[in-house]
Queue: 4 jobs
Job 1
Amino acid sequence: MSVPMMKLHDGNEIPQLGFGVFKVNPEKTEELVAEALRVGYRHIDTAAVYGNEEGVGRAIANSDIPREELFITTKLWNDSQTNAAEALDESLQKLGLDYVDLYLIHWPCPENGNYVEAWKQMIELQKSGKVKSIGVSNFELEHLEQLETHTSVTPVVNQVELHPYLQRWRELDAFRAHGVKIEAWGPLGQGQTDLFEIDEVTEPAKKYGVSPAQVIIRWHLQNDVILFPKSANPERIAENFDVFGFELTEDEMAAITDLDLGEEGRGGPHPNEFNAS
């Protein structure tokens, strides 16, 4: 199985499918990431606020995989937006790495008014070599426009809540028009929905002999979205990676796209309303 590579506008490449560790118990992180690496994942997505960067780092250190074959993402937490360099150094120390492949501003926190300054610092961190690519997470178009107004660097990705019940393609395609790739967090609805039980998902699953989760992952992949489903179950970790032996038809894709609930489908906070430190 070969994970497609997507070209970022800064010239770097990113694996389209990865493994996420959001809400993964720090005590279990090393074990689960090691299993993901064994299965074949090479893209690992973590964040300072997850509290499990050290577990990710141990799994990397104990693997026999050359560093250049891995793609590691971490994120700048909200209370560190005025000191990104120190925050990155702390993350690198916990990860046991000299650099990360992608560093993201985790949330814009518009009330705090620091995300533009944080972005300027990220640009300098990229120049230093400690970060290969820089991007954002949970940004709205108005936040992107502020970055482009005050700097000459556009984020390579925007990581947002995205699943069949929350799609927002008009806004996401506007990001893409700026050269920004879209990453999905909560791509399977984070287990808070009935996505695995509805006909639009279960019927293709039966047809192709796969799980409902695999169908939704294919829907993301065929929409050119980068994603990293999370699981604490070794069988599901492998299953979520085994998604390249079938392809959804246009009608099957459209049926899942028609499930969009707009803002009613949002499970996490709206970026304009989240300002936690």
Note: Residues 26-39 form the longest helix (14 residues).
Job 2
Amino acid sequence: MKKIYIIFLILISWAASAQVNYRFSGYIRDTLDNKPLARASINIDFGKFGALTDDKGHFDIVLPSGEHAISVKFVGYRPFRETIYLRGDIVNKVYALKLIENELEEVIVSSKGAESNIQRPLLGVSQLSVKTLRKLPAAIGEVDILRGLQMLPGVTSVGEASNGVNIRGGTTDQNLLLVDDIPIFNPTHMFGLFTAFPSEAASSVEVYKGSTPARFGGRAASVMDVTLQQPSLDKFKMNGGISFVSNRLTLDMPVIKEKLGVMVSGRAAFNDFMLPVVSPKLKDIKANFADLVTKIFWRVNSRNTVTASGYYSKDFFQTKLLGGIGAINATSTQYDYRSKSFSARWFYAINNKYNLQTTVVSADYLPQTLLPELNSENKVAIQSGITYKQIKSNLNYSSDKHRVEVGVSTTRYDIDPGQLIPGTSKSVLSIVTPKEHSLESAIHAEDEISFSSKATLSVGLRYSNFLALGPGNVQIYEGGQPRDDFSARDMVSYAKNKVMKSYGGFEPRMGLKYSLNERTSLKMGYNLMRQYVQVATNTTTPLPTSRWKTSDLHIKPQVSTLLSGGLFHNLKGSIYELSLEAYYRLTNNIIDYKPGADFLLSSYPETQLLQGKNRSYGIEVMFSKKKGEATGWINYTYSRSQNKVNEGSGFGEQINFGNWYSANYDRPHSFNASVIINQGSHHDFSFNFSYSTGRPYTLPEGFLVYQGRSYPYYGVRNNARLPDYHRLDFAWNIYQPGMKNKRYKSHFTFTLFNVYGKKNAYSVFVRSTGTAISTYKLVVFGSPIPSLSYNFKF
């Protein structure tokens, strides 16, 4: 036994002495000018070995043979990582590091260009990088523009499954969402879970929540301008992906090289059988959707180009019966809605200073609610629709001192508020509500004037005119009386295209920038915007089938006035950016609903509506790191949004006795943080954290008992708040695992939504237990939701 032990020790000593050491040496330099980087660090095997470079950027280390993980770092430069296998001496190895200041920006910037956030006279303007958006955690693996926007200061929503976003205290319908000039009337799929167009097809997303260019009009709060990527004229490209929710494919095809190209991007979701896995609350849900965008680019010659874009979206959503409608004995509620739209633009470069753009747009939004009858194959349908047609033209001039734009536009709205189609049902009567027709025209001019290197002024003026057109019947009500069926005393009929009511006015826009130094600037802004078409709803978030309503004799257009100011500062070569903005917005003629209002299939919705004013104000602070191994941003917003409705002294003409009350989307405190950690060419990680004050809701003050049944009694509106909302998300992108073909690139994305399983309340329901009130929460995502998607690019 003793001999065996001695032999064992000899073998161990021999094995140790047999391990060979090799020399590993080289230089660390700047990738741009090849200068040596002194005191740069080279870390080997996670700290087991390491060294610092000398004044010549040289390092020299002795390492054992085998595989080693190398990490090369220097302050202000992007780290470099690789794995080497040491089988002999490696000498004069050169590592070239890239200066972070020379890199392209990867995160949100305040308009285009590295210094434009401090140089241009615009406030509240953000550009969301689509490249960054693809790295952020997404709900159930779906890249989503609207969810990305909610990580910006001043942008919120009323819940996880809300239809749209609220910007600086505005309602969802006060946001103008454009995709290549096409208006999107319903921007989401599945009641707000996903954006209603393929994010992969977008090249840029700009949000104007403060300074709004004079060319935009028709909405009171903001503009979200999405530009689809330009088709390639020289190379075929293909990318797509597969996830638990949908399958995606984008084709970019040159038809005539350097002359004509086509881009087609589509997405389809038929995986609703997976919904119960996501949340048990979704077990009775049936949902599928599809969307398609296409873009054609034709370079006619060196001065003329023609661009055409198409958009199609289709949704089907079935849930349990949501309330009863008349005598319809339905088993469920089915929402079936679609959009189909088209735009075309002709661009003419007159010379190197002047150009002319002319655009035509056609859009149709067709929502319907289907109610399958019990013990029957018949479905009762409630249908509505919006037809939108526009033509506009802009003339642009650019010089060293001026950037001038003048333009005209005309828009036609034809709205079908709704009709009840009974089908074969004998117990349901057909109802047809009067259609609404209108014409909105505008002329605008804008100039950006550079007085000096310090002072720049952007001044614009828009004049808009709105005509409510016949045919139609208008009820006349007794003066000083509430608008209802009892006070209606007369009816006036208008023939086709006759003007029933007209509105209009000037909409001045102004932005002023003054640079304190090359890194810091102060800005001030003023905006006035008019909105002639809005959504009438009595729900917290508008349903896809909510009623769109034009201004008329009784419903005045909304007029929004915004004052804003800000301080902007760039640090350390524009790697870091700090901004502070404050705003105050007053909107007249907002619409709210009377207690117990019912807009569905109402021929005279003004009897259900009240108008008042909204005041919204806030302070937004944002800090971002735009370049480097770790990028991202944090922001905090304090804001308030309050309504005041007082049309008369009667109970039905006031809300909360004519006092100010919190709007449905009033969330005083919000905090967002996004961090992206780039780990070389094969991995990156990202985290999102969101916190906000709970939104208001109306809690009954008690219950009345009548004939053995309890009925809630409501005093004031929005007298309580949901619990505060917070959520953490995580994403891990794994690029090209095992792929050697450089023409074909792929990556997997693993996402964990709601990491710590916070049961955030979407809404609160109330039930009575005797004379007491008890509440319970509706939670959409109450547990962590993992997802895995595969993405490819050719």
Note: Residues 2-18 form the longest helix (17 residues).
Job 3
Amino acid sequence: MQAVDTEHVQESESGPPGADGKDEALSPNRARAARALHKGVFTVVLMCLVTALVHVAMVFLHVAPANAVSKQYSPQVNAWVYPLFEQNWRLFAPDPDSANRQILARTSHTAPDGSVRVSDWFDLAAVDSAAVEQNVFPSHTTQNLLRRAWTTYVELHGGDDEAKSERAVMLQQYLRNIAADRFADHNSGPFEFIQLRVLTLPIAAPGAAASKRPPVPVENRLLPWWKVTPHGN
């Protein structure tokens, strides 16, 4: 009988020399990477779950009838809900606009030589109207962002432009930022101040004769100049 080389057989069964040592060195690294990935996914899922629960709780306290908890945490609830997650019952009791509002903006920029340059009036509401008319599925931002910012601003400020509460200050900043961003998107050049002008126009009555007459503004409201961060630089 032919002798069997036992060392050769053992090497063939166990693989090339050094293979076991390499696998043993890689296994702990792979295990640590797997544990780190698992912890990362678990943390992200947990944060999303906590955020969702907090959001549902805040919105519930906002829309629920006044109670001890909602009164105690009213500042926190309002800070979370306004202005992005505002809730109301207008889905069941709609209040359509009875007038058209033309919201215009102009900016001011101080040149290096000290001269002040004021831009022409730019119709912000017309941009939204054009986007709605040319889009089969217009976004909520296009339809309501500017309009709701202005109506809420009027509700909190009344006939003047003095902010008498923290929420009024927040809405003033909200409206100012929307106007500055919209203006910068359609006009080049830097600016440091922005001013709004709002024309409230009655909805024309149906009929050919009525449509030929231009609507007379019910209100022509000029807001003060607001300081904004430079745009267009």
Note: The chain has a mean pLDDT of 80.
Job 4
Amino acid sequence: MDGVSSAFASLGGFFGMFDPLCGPVGIFTLLGQGTLIACGDAGWGDEIALGVGVTISLALATLPLGLTIGFLVALAAQSEEKSLRLAAGIYTTIFRGLPELLTLFIVYYGMQILIQWMLGMLGSGGRVEINAFLAGMIALAVVNSAYSGEVMLSAFRAIPKGQYEAGDALGLRRGKTMMLIILPQLVRIALPGLVNLWMILLKDTSYVSIIGLSDILRQTGVAARVSKEAFFFYMIACSLYLGLAILSSFGLRYIDRWSRRSEVVR
């Protein structure tokens, strides 16, 4: 079990009562008794619940990093500096063109090779292994930022230049204008596209199972191989991903209403 999975396991006792799968009123606890998804030593419920926690944590950790990088890419893409526009264009072209799985391999194995090379230059040997959670977060954030940067760039272009001029007329510095005038409009305009990117990110977390992270797909895959009930456990995985998508859609719908609260009804 890797470090991230161990951390989740150590916190299991504290958060156990809130576990929607194996808690006191969890789905597996109430409906899975005597089956392969029973909680405890009798089934695979605890392992799958751990995988759900890892998947959600990875998506939530990746999202702010991807959005932050994407915002910087969007700023560079509309900069007056030609070199910044060129760099932003190259960045988005590369990471939108590469398959997500290949990007994950490049980050996971490439970081290990780079760190080993740097240690070798310093005279230190030994094998270096990168944490799978960190590698997955960086790889998914890079891919997410390439797409979110394009979404935000379109939102920037949809905001009239008069908004910037209004900030200047009020005596606001460009940073204040961005925070108080531009960003609220940017969020409202870009939100539909960013909602779709969140759904894609949630599904793309399944790639980290390839590098050994104990997410939903890896945990259900192990259970399927051991129990020889592949169809059953992969259907459980499908149900869990669909459940997360449905819950996300409710939350994102609320955020969308909140972002539009200032619009005048015509």
Note: The chain is about 75% helix and 0% strand.
